[in-house]
Amino acid sequence: MIVARTGNEAMAEAMRQINPDVVAAYPITPATEIVQHFASYVADGLVTTEYVPAESEHSALSACIGAAAAGARVMTATAAQGLALMHEMLFIASGMRLPIVLCLVNRALSSPINIHCDHSDSLASRDSGWLQIFTENPQEAYDTTIMAVKIAEEILLPVMVTTDGFIISHGMERVELIDDDKVPEWLGERKAPYTLLDVDNPITIGMLDLQDYYFEHKRQEIEAMNNALPVIEKVQKDFGDTFGRYYPIVDEYRMEDAEVAVLVMGSTGGTGKVAVDRMRKKGKKVGLVRCRVYRPFPRERMLKAITKVKVLGIMDRADTLSTLGGHLYNDCRSILYESEARPLLKNYIYGLGGRDISIEEIETVFEQLLEIKERGRVDKEIVYYGVRGE
Amino acid sequence: MKKEKKGWKELPLGLVWQSGTSQEFETGDWRSDKPIWDAKKCTHCLICWIYCPDSAIIIKDGKVQGIDYRYCKGCGICAEECPPKVKAITMVREEK
């Protein structure tokens, strides 16, 4: 069925079709609608979910953790400060290997207080042991939310699926919905390897784990993340084979003969692709790489994509406030260390607090990258793009 | 008393463990002082059994049989609480 849906509505539709056993959530702009729509599905009897309107995000994720440990299929949604309040529990969820799916609407973290998009919230939770998948549009947000359930349950780690706040969460687009009965059919039932409610096989979970075992359990978690990419790829292929929409780990656009490219995440992928088309019309050999799966970091695939060009502009919608530039920039510099082919890198920190990024601005980035290619060197590696006073 | 600990590949996932494993956790290896029970002096009043914060006083048919050194942490409460006129339990330095 083809419908018009915002990113939030698309994610809520996905949750309705998934019909999770438990949803515990607390509303926060710009993710409020996801929970709001889902609450009305509960009230209207469209889902059989046990819905827990918690008193805070910390409590919401705590309830999700308890339910997931009891063997339930569990989902929640939040943004920015909500994710920050969940921070403590993020590590508990991943450490206990609970396959919770969280719909995250990317919003700038306070202070200064702001409700619009940047990636500082999810990137601040980068090392929490959650998978992070950044989507470009409502269709991808919808499809990825469904896929995330299967990915999480197979590798036994929680998954965050993100959309860009307002740009995607409130932007209405054409979305192709899967038939209601096909989603649960494709997902099947969650088969938990252990559950708190199995009285015949009593277990202890979340116990004290000191010098003698903590390291071993963390090593298991690291291994789960190390092995996650093939699972994501398998689920994405299975989804494509079943429903006809295929997704990559790393999205490459017109990269075949590109000489320079930008690397982006989220909705800037869509804007950037239009900029690429315009540049191509002018005869400029430019391309775009979009990091869709950010955690685990797709080392091999990313290397393969970015080493195709001579100059790469890495566009980060957050800064690490560390003198080292943005997150993607640091990841890419790291993987390029042992690579023979190394493009020149320029880091563009842009769009903080929801500052718009236009097609024309990305075209200007391409012009600068082409100029760097001609000169053969980068003068200033990290720039703050679109900020006044630079 | 020390057992070989499992490597990460053999451990159950996600901090999950079967229940009742405290029985396997022999807390007696922390002990620095050791209670010595004297069967001849003991009146089997069971005060030591009541006060023991673990389950380290072995009882059979209402009579004290001795100390379970696998779990006794050597806190000395049993020796302290044993009535002054009886003094059936004395603490000595643990030899390792």
Task: Describe the protein.
The complex is a heterodimer of chains A (390) and B (96). With 390 residues, chain A is of the alpha/beta class. Chain A is built from 13 helices and 16 strands. Chain A folds into two domains: 241 residues, Thiamin diphosphate (ThDP)-binding fold, Pyr/PP domains (Rossmann fold), CATH 3.40.50.970; 136 residues, 3-Layer(aba) Sandwich (Rossmann fold). In chain A, helix 6 crosses helix 9 and helix 10 crosses helix 13. The mean pLDDT of chain A is 97. Chain B has two helices and five strands. Chain B starts with 16 loop residues before the first strand and ends with a strand. A two-stranded antiparallel sheet of chain B has the order 2-5. Chain B has a two-stranded antiparallel ribbon with strand order 3-4. The chains are: A alpha/beta (390), B alpha+beta (96). Chains A and B meet through strand 9 and helix 8 of A and strand 1 of B.
Number of strands of chain B: 5
Reported by name, the CATH topology of the largest domain in chain A is Rossmann fold
Tally of helical segments of chain B: 2
Mean residue pLDDT of chain B: 91
Strand percent estimate of chain B:
15-25%
- Main sheet overview of chain B: 2 strands, antiparallel
Question: What general outline of chain B do the C-alpha atoms trace?
Answer: elongated
Q: Any guess at the CATH architecture of the largest domain in chain A?
A: 3-Layer(aba) Sandwich
How many distinct domains of chain A?
2
Distance between the termini of chain B: 11 Å
Which percent band covers the strand fraction of chain A?
15-25%
Kindly provide the radius of gyration of chain B, computed on alpha-carbon positions and rounded to a whole number of angstroms: 17 Å
Oligomerization status of the protein chains: heterodimer
Secondary structure category of chain B: alpha+beta
Shape annotation of chain A: globular
